[in-house]
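Quick one:
INPUT:
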């Protein structure tokens, strides 16, 4: 019975069991087990979904759940079954009790008025007036009163009406049987349902291995060739690909397998004929015959044993001769071709084709997954495959599987043909095959009575033994004459390399050639077993071959385990080798617990000869335990402590170092000795989903601190010295881009071992100290500017430190940078921690503190400015007045500005990096032109920001042709109305005939309206459907008024043969006269004259099916669309277990929805025919009856008995429930009859229910999403991602621009702020030109990054085209003084504080001399930086370094590429520094470019230090003390 507290206690559980059939009870229990919780309860959500279905309203479902006895804890199985029996088989009294339980309290005593009102309101939305009669006397009623009331008012609620008045439409069983896919396919092939089920599993595995995602020709060829000859692989593929769509779907694979393996002999030979008929003309010409014979002879040769080939009459026969003989003997009509019938006659008297059939059978069983029908067939298939493989030598890369010899022997006995005595001897029933002589094979047994040791047997492979003989020598020994040509020798070590042999015919797979007579052992054993049948072996058990694995760590590789080393494993005694295809088949048919794959490698110990690696290297993969992320420090002192609390060894200061990151064994893995480190990296990134740049591998020695970084990815495991059970640490980069091991070692003042000395000076990386890649990349770029680096390495900066400069950093920046550069170029370490420079920068620029990512260009700008001010040779800067150009010539104004700049700024930074820009502003009101010349140390070039979005629209035409995808680029703020116009121009479809539909999977997500903003879709696809044209309404004919007009109908044969689209297309082309008279259905006016809208797509009544920002509330599903309805494809999925009959077949949506034009005079048949027009391309047509019968298993055709392979049903927008019937009918949709009646506009959705047989056999799923790309797609994509040139950026930089209202210019003539235009030009180029590509820009109130690719030259960059034009006689007019030359800066000693001398105080004649000298002989620095290109001295630059940024704004990563003085490029990725080629450089993400000018002597920029003393003053104690304090872990 139900529980004591159950509301169904009035109905005993035993009574429910008595009324239910045994089958119903079992099925219900199985269904309950699948959905119940661990506590044996069913939740209300599961009850609604699994028991009632999706069509029942939630309120009704909750009411039934309550009536069944469900609580918040769940519903028990007993209560569920009792409720289902009452619901489907209960009497009226029992149903009344069930109703009472729905509304009654938990004690099942009474119904309370307020509670019942609430429940009825929640479930039905309104309260019936009949309820007032129930509670006239009291607010609480008992069951008796309720019973009287409900009988008097059976229609009071929907629930009472359903249970007491309506016939019950559901039951516990459903006898109707919808054929499943397997049943349908089994009915038209020679396969069983179980075969088809297993084949389907295998098919999806084969398909998943394809690069294209389809079972295409390349995938097919990789799987079957070899053993299938390559010449016929393509024709064999097309024999399976029945519809010639260049891929094999599952139905084609199943039918092809049936035809070539399970069909009658004639049908199988017909399939072979299709393979050889390359041009599909039904005949084999001479060329096709020659190709056929070549393939058959090759198959015959591979099948036969080497010693029996000489006896083969076809051996070494000329294929052309054989083809001519076939034509001469069987070409009855002498047309030079062989027909199918003639081919079949030839196969009767010739056995060559039988070998091909056997090979096809092996392919279908072993590769495609068909299970053999008998054990004898299984044994024959596998042994034939092994015999063919035994003739081949080992090839590097092959994979072989080990199988325990005990299981292998058991299997051989099981599949062996039954033995019986014939003529006094044992016979296996096969008889002699070749000249009365047969070569039998046996499996080598584990006993060797004639040998003292197992490795003395020549027919076995010995693990850890080296055989020096050639395998071909074994294959020449026949009839038991087995004498080894060499003597196997004992291995030097138990760990030596495994076997180096091929699988010869005499030794592979345990097969041994013996004499025709049976051996005494075999005869004795066979006689003993004649009375009993061999037992089928169990799952493959290889546990006796491996050592026990007690580790709980998961292995990432599928090596299966380590082979035992304690005993000598012998092939033929302990194990057998089989190829991968055999192992996969046997493990599928029998099961297998441990797979032991082993790979053939090129052994270095065996002169590179192939050998099977039985003992690959197993390693332990360690990882760091995840530690809590440190909080971002807010104080400056916390910056350095956050770096890891490392102590600086410079002053032997002792600090509390952070704990070493704890390591643990995360995985184990097994790799071949020949695997490269790069392959291991790729494997780990794929298997564990690492990003390659975020992991490093360390080989850990005997001591934990003995670590070696595995960074040379070209080295193999063997070359790296990785041994068995070696510990390999997978170091994963922290979120702040630091490496845990580096930080730990820095904290301990140690250095990670990376083969400490770099390959070249300067090839030294910088440790990431916490998102400091921005600094590392900038520093490496500056460091690889060789003239500046020579300056610092030579210590010249110590002679020019300016500690009194108020704009400088007391020389600290220059001092710290100089120390770092010396370390980088000392060649003593491969990585350095830039702690001091990081600290110093943070001291003077607090914005770079913390561990957030910063802009590398900002850091570079600060660093160059800091170096300049710390090294400025001008100690007291004079006041310089800026003069207006005032119409003077540009040359004069430019030199004056440059001289003023040099009066205040002279340093190595100015000499190398500073150039000059010309800026001219023209007033829009008075036309006044103001020209200025300003210095720069880098050019910041703008990149065009993407203001357009790329949209792809799939257009579906009315004629049912293959959809076409179009690509369109629009502004981000455009609306769909503009998109329609653009699409109309591309497609030639009028704007008012385009309907946009957003589709997600098989459903319509939204119908965007013209006034909606265009958006990029997430997960959905934008479709555009063509609607019929608009024409004037024609008056109705007399026949139409009387309703007697004949409707066009389509015959059965037309539909079946795919010839029915012409009539429909004619109606669509004729427009509304034959298809529709309007696309908008509106209410008729008083005089019943219909009105018609000519723009229906602009005003659909239901704009969206899902809430969107533009449409927050979707329309009700009962509203009608204007001029169209939506059709969704639907199929019924048969459930093996269910509760109610309504759930036996559950609907499922698939495919792409269809928009059906539908107006007031659209007939049902119009809808059917339009659907057929759209889907006919998805359905393979039945073969015309007049043609020859198909070679595959016969498909069912006219016997299906339908005109259309689908039925239309009216449904709600979910596509699952009927739009016309109430929920308690459990109707999946009322059928729309295919007749001439007008369509009843009762729903805006139709379900296209496919007939199961047609869906399974003819519907081509691969064509659902098939579309053609219009040329606009590629064009739009190209424009979206099209790279630009550096010249384009320079052109944009030097283009005149208009200043806006917020950038008004103060005009010196107008004496007010005016509108103006501005133009920039380059006037003077520096020796080292820095180009910054402005990827980060502030647009529309937010920062965005441009990912635009910029192509730039690596060599011979010529920016002279963007220099400001000079006057023709500029050389003669330059009369300004060269400040650099005045007193050669030696006069600094004569001027207090090193100030530049005032020209007015110089003697007049000296000034004249200086002026003359400046005109005729400028200083060498000025000569080197002349910016007037000539044919003899062009201005060209070579790239010396660049900083690249990858990732998003506010994050990402910086990497530097730089050219070493050794002329090699290096990639500086924080602490990693690797040599790379120009092709390996990530130029697409370039951010900062350093160009070095050609043909310039940089030694002229080095200062003259003669007579000067270096400033060797150390950084003050206070500064050093702060640094030490900051390095202590807080």
């Amino acid at each position: 019975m139900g529980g004591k507290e159950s509301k169904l206690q009035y109905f005993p559980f035993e009574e429910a069991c008595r009324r239910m059939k045994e089958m119903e009870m079992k099925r219900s229990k199985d269904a309950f087990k699948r959905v119940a919780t661990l506590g044996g309860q069913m939740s209300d959500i599961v009850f609604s979904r699994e028991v009632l279905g999706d069509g029942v309203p939630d309120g009704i479902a909750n009411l039934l759940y309550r009536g069944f006895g469900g609580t918040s804890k769940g519903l028990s199985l007993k209560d569920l079954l009792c409720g289902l029996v009452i619901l489907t088989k209960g009497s009226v009294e029992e149903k009344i009790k069930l109703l009472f339980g729905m509304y009654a309290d938990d004690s099942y005593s009474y119904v309370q008025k307020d509670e019942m009102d609430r429940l009825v309101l929640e479930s039905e939305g309104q309260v019936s007036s009949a309820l007032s009669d129930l509670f006239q006397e009291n607010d609480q009623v008992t069951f008796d009163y309720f019973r009287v009331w409900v009988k008097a008012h059976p229609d009071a609620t929907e629930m009472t009406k359903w249970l007491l008045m309506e016939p019950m439409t559901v039951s516990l069983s459903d006898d109707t049987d919808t054929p499943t896919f397997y049943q349908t396919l089994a009915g038209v092939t020679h396969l069983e349902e179980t075969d088809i089920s297993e084949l389907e599993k295998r098919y999806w595995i084969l398909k998943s291995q394809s690069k294209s995602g389809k079972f295409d020709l390349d995938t097919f060829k990789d799987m079957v060739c070899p053993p299938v000859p390559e010449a016929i692989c393509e024709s064999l593929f097309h024999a399976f690909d029945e519809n010639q769509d260049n891929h094999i779907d599952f139905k084609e694979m199943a039918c092809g397998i049936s035809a070539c393996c399970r069909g009658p002999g004639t049908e199988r030979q017909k399939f072979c004929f299709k393979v050889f008929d390359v041009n599909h003309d039904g005949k084999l010409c001479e060329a096709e015959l020659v190709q056929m014979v070549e393939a058959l002879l090759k198959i015959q040769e591979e099948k036969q044993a080497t010693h029996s080939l000489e006896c083969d009459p076809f051996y070494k026969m000329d294929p052309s001769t054989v083809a001519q003989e076939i034509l001469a003997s069987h070409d009855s009509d002498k047309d030079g071709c062989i027909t199918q019938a003639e081919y079949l006659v030839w196969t009767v008297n010739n056995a060559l084709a039988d070998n091909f059939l056997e090979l096809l059978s092996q392919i279908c069983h072993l590769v495609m997954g068909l299970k053999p029908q008998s054990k004898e067939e299984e044994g024959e298939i596998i042994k034939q495959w092994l015999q063919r493989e035994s003739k081949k030598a080992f090839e590097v890369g092959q994979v072989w599987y080990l199988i325990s010899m005990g299981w292998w022997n058991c299997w051989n006995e099981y599949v062996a043909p039954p033995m019986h005595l014939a003529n006094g001897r044992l016979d296996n029933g096969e008889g002699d095959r070749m000249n009365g002589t047969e070569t039998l094979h046996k499996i080598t047994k584990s006993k060797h009575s004639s040998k003292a040791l197992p490795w003395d047997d020549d027919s076995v492979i010995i693990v850890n033994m080296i055989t020096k003989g050639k395998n071909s020598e074994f294959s020449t020994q026949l009839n038991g004459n087995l004498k080894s040509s060499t003597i196997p020798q004992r291995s030097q070590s138990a760990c030596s390399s495994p076997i180096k042999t091929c699988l010869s015919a005499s030794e592979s797979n345990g097969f041994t050639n013996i004499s025709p007579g049976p051996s005494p052992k075999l005869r004795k054993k066979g006689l003993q077993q004649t009375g009993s049948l061999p037992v089928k072996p169990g799952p493959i058990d290889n546990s006796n071959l491996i050592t026990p694995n007690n580790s709980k760590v998961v292995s990432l590789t599928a090596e299966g385990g380590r082979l035992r080393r304690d005993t000598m494993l012998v092939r033929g005694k302990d194990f057998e080798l089989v190829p991968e295809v055999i192992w996969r088949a046997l493990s599928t048919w029998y099961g297998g617990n441990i797979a032991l794959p082993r790979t053939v490698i090129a052994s270095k110990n065996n002169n590179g000869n192939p050998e099977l690696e039985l003992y690959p290297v197993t390693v332990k993969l360690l990882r760091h335990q995840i530690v809590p992320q440190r909080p971002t420090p807010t104080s400056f002192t916390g910056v350095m402590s956050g770096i890891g609390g490392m102590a600086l060894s410079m002053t032997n200061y002792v600090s509390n170092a952070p704990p070493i990151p704890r390591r643990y064994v995360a995985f184990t893995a097994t790799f071949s000795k020949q695997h490269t480190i790069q392959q291991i990296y790729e494997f780990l990134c794929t298997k564990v989903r690492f990003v390659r740049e975020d992991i490093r591998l360390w080989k850990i020695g005997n001591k934990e601190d003995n670590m070696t970084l595995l960074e040379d990815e070209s080295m193999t495991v063997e070359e790296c010295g990785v041994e068995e059970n070696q510990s390999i640490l997978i170091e994963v980069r922290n979120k702040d881009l630091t490496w845990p091991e580096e930080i730990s070692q820095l904290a301990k003042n140690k250095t990670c071992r990376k083969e400490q000395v770099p390959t070249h000076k300067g090839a030294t990386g910088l440790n990431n100290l916490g998102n400091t890649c921005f600094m590392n990349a900038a520093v490496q770029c500056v460091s690889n500017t060789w003239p500046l680096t020579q300056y610092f390495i030579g210590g010249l900066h110590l002679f020019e430190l300016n500690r009194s400069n108020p704009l400088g950093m007391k020389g600290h920046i220059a001092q710290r940078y100089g120390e770092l550069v010396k370390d980088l170029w000392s060649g003593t370490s491969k990585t350095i921690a830039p702690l001091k420079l990081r600290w110093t920068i943070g001291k003077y620029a607090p914005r770079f503190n913390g561990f957030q990512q910063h802009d590398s260009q900002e850091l570079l700008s600060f660093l160059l400015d800091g170096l300049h001010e710390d090294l400025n040779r001008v100690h007291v800067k004079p006041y310089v007045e800026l003069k207006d150009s005032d119409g003077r010539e540009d040359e004069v104004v430019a030199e004056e500005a440059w001289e003023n700049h040099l009066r205040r700024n002279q340093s190595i930074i100015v000499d190398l990096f500073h150039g000059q820009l010309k800026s001219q502003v023209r007033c829009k009101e008075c036309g006044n032109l103001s020209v200025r010349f300003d210095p720069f140390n880098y050019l910041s070039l703008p990149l065009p920001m993407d203001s357009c979005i790329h949209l792809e629209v799939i257009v579906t035409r009315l004629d049912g042709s293959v959809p076409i995808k179009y690509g369109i680029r629009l502004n981000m703020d455009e609306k769909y109305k503009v998109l329609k116009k653009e699409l109309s121009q591309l497609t030639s479809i009028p704007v008012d005939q385009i309907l946009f539909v957003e589709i997600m999977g098989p459903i319509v997500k939204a119908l965007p309206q013209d006034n909606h903003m265009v958006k990029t879709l997430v997960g959905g696809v934008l479709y555009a459907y063509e609607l019929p044209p608009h024409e004037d309404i024609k008056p109705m004919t007399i026949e139409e008024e009387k309703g007697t007009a004949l409707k066009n109908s389509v015959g059965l044969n037309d539909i079946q043969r795919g010839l029915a689209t012409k009539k429909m297309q004619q109606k669509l082309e004729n427009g509304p006269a034959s298809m529709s008279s309007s696309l908008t259905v509106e209410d008729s006016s008083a005089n019943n004259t219909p009105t018609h809208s000519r723009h229906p797509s602009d005003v659909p009544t239901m704009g969206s099916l899902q809430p969107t920002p533009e449409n927050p509330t979707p329309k009700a599903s009962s509203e009608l669309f204007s001029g169209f309805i939506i059709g969704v494809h639907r199929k019924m999925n048969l459930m093996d277990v269910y509760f109610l009959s309504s759930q036996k077949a559950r609907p499922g949506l698939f495919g792409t929805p269809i928009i059906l034009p539908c107006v007031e005079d659209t007939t049902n048949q119009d809808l059917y025919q339009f659907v057929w027009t759209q889907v006919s391309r998805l359905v393979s047509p039945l073969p015309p009856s007049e043609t020859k019968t198909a070679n595959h298993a016969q498909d069912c055709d006219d016997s299906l008995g339908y005109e259309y392979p689908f039925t239309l049903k009216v449904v709600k927008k979910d596509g699952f429930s009927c739009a016309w019937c109430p929920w308690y009918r459990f109707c999946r949709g009322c059928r729309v009859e295919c007749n001439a009646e007008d369509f009843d506009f009762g729903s805006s959705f139709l379900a296209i229910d496919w007939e199961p047989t047609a869906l399974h056999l003819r519907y081509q799923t691969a064509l659902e999403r098939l579309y053609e790309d219009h040329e606009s797609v590629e064009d739009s994509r190209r424009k979206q991602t099209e790279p630009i040139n550096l010249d384009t950026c320079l052109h944009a930089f030097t283009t005149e621009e208009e200043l806006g209202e917020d950038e008004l210019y103060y005009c010196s003539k107008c004496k007010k702020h005016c509108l103006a235009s501005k133009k920039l030009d380059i006037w003077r180029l520096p020796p080292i030109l820095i180009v910054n590509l402005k990827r980060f820009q502030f647009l529309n109130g937010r920062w965005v990054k441009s990912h635009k690719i910029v192509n730039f030259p690596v060599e011979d960059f010529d920016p002279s085209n963007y220099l400001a034009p000079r006057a023709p006689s500029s050389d003669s007019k330059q009369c300004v003084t060269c400040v650099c030359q005045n007193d050669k800066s030696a006069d600094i000693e004569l001027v207090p504080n090193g100030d530049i001398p005032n020209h007015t105080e110089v003697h007049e004649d000296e000034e004249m001399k200086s002026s003359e000298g400046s005109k005729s002989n400028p200083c060498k620095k000025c000569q080197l930086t002349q910016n007037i290109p000539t044919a003899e001295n062009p201005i060209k630059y070579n790239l010396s370094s660049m900083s690249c940024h990858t990732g998003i704004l506010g994050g990402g990563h910086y990497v530097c590429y730089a050219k070493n003085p050794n002329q090699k490029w290096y990639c500086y990725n924080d602490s990693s520094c690797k040599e790379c080629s120009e092709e390996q450089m990530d130029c697409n993400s370039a951010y900062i470019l350093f160009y070095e000018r050609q043909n310039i002597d940089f030694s002229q920029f080095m200062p003259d230090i003669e007579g000067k003393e270096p400033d060797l003053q150390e950084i003050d104690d206070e500064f050093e003390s702060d640094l030490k304090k900051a390095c202590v872990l807080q």
